[in-house]
């Protein structure tokens, strides 16, 4: 496994074969008990946090089965799928068992998205995802939960370790208007962005959170390798796509200024000019 740059992510050993087989058997039985027919395949990833298996339904349609071992990751991913239900930019959910913390999702075969045209679509897709989640938060009147998450220190430690970022979070906590806009997928490495030929899909949503600055996702995308260095153009594509779904309370220039402030603190190598 590859080390993630965030210090709170600890690399764990892959589980032994006997443990994986036991988890596979238990997952198969649990899904069958819920009335969903499934043919489990090989383990694609197995750690102490979660296990991901390939699978097929009765019509040989490829699926992904994900079983969480930790409640927090499952709860975050479940929240993401509930807020983003119906979005074309996340895997389709076929079955969820909350008691067993199991999800059955559509599988998409990824293609490279390094070219500038595809990268532009990634930024647009992220804007629609953020906009849809924000709209659902507003509709459900959940903005107070976003503020509560911030004030209880649910943000990652490395964000809080910088005084300027701590002050930024305090600002969010005092403003329900802004907090209702802030949702973040949280982990936008290349392996979590799929260009399936049918559109952009974001997967592995267990780091999804309400109340965390959306700009953090933008900064992650802007750090991905690309032949297109026009960061402001990519950011505008994101902003316009988001505005079509859920108009933000900030102008593009205000949003860009916020992005510049955070990128200076987190990733000074990102050039927004």
Describe, in plain words, how this protein is organized in 3D.
Helix content is 44%, strand content 15%. With 273 residues, the protein is α+β, with helices and mostly antiparallel strands. A five-stranded antiparallel β-sheet has the order 1-2-3-5-4. A two-stranded antiparallel ribbon has the order 6-9. Strand 1 (39-46) and strand 2 form a beta hairpin. The longest helix has 25 residues, at 116-140. Residues 1-13 and 143-161 have low confidence and may be disordered.
Keywords:
273 residues; alpha+beta; five-stranded antiparallel beta sheet; 10 helices; 9 strands; 44% helix; disordered N terminus
Task: Outline the fold blueprint.
Blueprint: H1 17-33, E1 39-46, E2 50-56, E3 62-68, H2 71-83, E4 93-97, E5 102-106, H3 116-140, H4 143-151, H5 157-160, H6 163-173, H7 176-179, E6 183-184, E7 193-195, E8 200-202, E9 209-210, H8 215-222, H9 231-245, H10 252-266
Antiparallel strand pairs: 1-2, 2-3, 3-5, 4-5, 6-9, 7-8
Helix pairs in contact: 3-9, 4-6, 8-10
Q: Gist?
A:
Strand 7 and strand 8 form a beta hairpin.
Low-confidence stretches: 1-13, 143-161
Report the helical percentage: 40-55%
Category by helix and strand content:
alpha+beta
Pattern of helices and strands: HEEEHEEHHHHHEEEEHHH
Number of strands: 9
Radius of gyration: 19 Å
On the 0-100 scale, what is the average pLDDT?
78
Strand content: 15-25%
Q: Globular, elongated, flat, extended or rod-shaped: what is the shape? A: elongated
Distance between the termini: 35 Å
Largest sheet report:
5 strands, antiparallel
Q: How many distinct helices?
A: 10
Strand order in the largest sheet: 1-2-3-5-4
């Amino acid at each position: 496994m590859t080390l993630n740059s965030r210090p709170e992510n600890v690399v764990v050993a892959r589980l032994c074969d006997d443990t994986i087989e036991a988890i596979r058997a238990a997952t198969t039985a649990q899904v069958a008990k819920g009335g969903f027919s499934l043919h489990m395949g090989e383990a694609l990833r197995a750690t102490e946090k979660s296990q991901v298996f390939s699978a097929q339904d009765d019509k040989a349609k490829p699926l992904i089965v994900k079983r969480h071992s930790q409640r927090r990751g499952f709860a975050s991913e479940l929240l993401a799928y509930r807020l983003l239900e119906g979005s074309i930019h996340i895997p389709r959910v076929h079955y969820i068992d909350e008691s067993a913390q199991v999800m059955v999702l559509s599988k998409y075969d990824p293609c490279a998205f390094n070219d500038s045209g595809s990268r532009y679509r990634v930024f647009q897709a992220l804007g629609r995802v953020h906009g849809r989640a924000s709209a659902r938060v507003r509709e459900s009147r959940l903005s107070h939960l976003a503020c509560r998450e911030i004030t209880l220190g649910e943000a990652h430690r490395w964000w809080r370790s910088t005084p300027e970022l701590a002050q930024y979070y305090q600002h969010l906590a005092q403003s329900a208007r802004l907090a209702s806009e802030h949702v973040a997928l949280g982990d936008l490495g290349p392996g979590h962005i799929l260009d399936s030929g049918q559109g952009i899909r974001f997967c592995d949503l267990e780091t999804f959170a309400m109340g965390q600055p959306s700009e953090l996702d933008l900064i992650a995308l802007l750090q991905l390798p690309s032949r297109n260095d026009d960061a402001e153009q990519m950011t505008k594509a994101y902003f316009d796509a988001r505005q079509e779904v859920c108009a933000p309370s900030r102008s593009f220039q205000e949003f860009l200024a916020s992005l510049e402030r955070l990128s200076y603190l987190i990733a000074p190598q990102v050039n927004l000019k």
